Amino acid sequence: MRWWPRAIPATRRACRRTWRAKRRPHRTGWHSNTWLPSTGGATSTQSPRASCAAATVSPAGGSIPVVDLPTSSSGADTTTIALQCADVANRIIQAGYGQAAVAGVKGRGNVVTETDLAVERAVTAILAGEFPGHAVLSEETAAGTRSDGWMWIVDPLDGTKNFSRGIPHFAFTIALCFDSEPVVGLTTHPLLGDTFLAVRGQGTTLNGARVTVTDCATVQDAVVAVDLGYNDARAGQQLATASHLWPGMQSLRVPGSAALGFAYLAAGKWDIYLHSDLEPWDVAAGLILVREAGGVVRQRDGAPATIESRAVVAATPAVYADFAKLAGHLPWAG
User: Fold this and answer.
1) Which residue among 58, 75, 174, 214 is least crowded, i.e. fewest CB within 10 A of its CB?
2) How many Cβ atoms sit within 10 Å of the Cβ of residue 58?
3) In order of start, what are the domains of the chain with their CATH numbers?
């Protein structure tokens, strides 16, 4: 049985203090389009003013209540704090653009700048103050963090190589997860001022306006975007996949930012996006941005992607189906 999410009306946003979802003996993930967080029956210490994000409802109209989004120490909701983090990050990134100081090299083409570190320090400080009980997984200083409860996932500067070379295509991205499922996702383009935001069950917006994936139905009619990552073998497979599809597409793009790769798909700027060397901070916000915009994000085996998926294809549903027929046999994911 499948379930579809529906936003809770404003009149129902007075929520109870205790979690309203019992822990299931297995993780449902996205395989049934159902988000059912696990809590082990624990009682929340968050404010009873927490707002409800969504309810999952069946085609027949029955509902399964979901865990409420938490309220911060200052009384703000999660999207307000995510936007506050983005505002601070954007200002730091804008100030550093064009004068990036490389602070370290993590591998071929993979650098970290002083701006990455400054953004991460500022954002984690905000999260520690507003949500002291939440885990934070962040690329530069807390990459090993994992949690079955509330966890923020932060990439302070996605597309650092572009940033360090003065190429104006990079992002700040942040997501809030519960039981490793993204429930809020936000990605910004600091130079353009674009903000892509999704909340579970409430759709995806770009600068406050609702957006969806395109109605593109075939790879032949699609703008295809591919990113290579830092693994040579996997990058070669991505190039081989693109070569296999070429010239059966409208055009090919290599953006250099996974966060914007997913966000641009969600906003209808291209129709399919492939990446085979991802980390949780690359994909967390993208998962909810794309899904809430009507798209799909799949692993190599066709299963719905998770924050731990290393290789994914994100696309309109029809383009994904066409891609699977044309290139599903290729080892594009390693």
Assistant:
1) 75
2) 13
3) 78-211 (3.30.540.10), 219-327 (3.40.190.80)
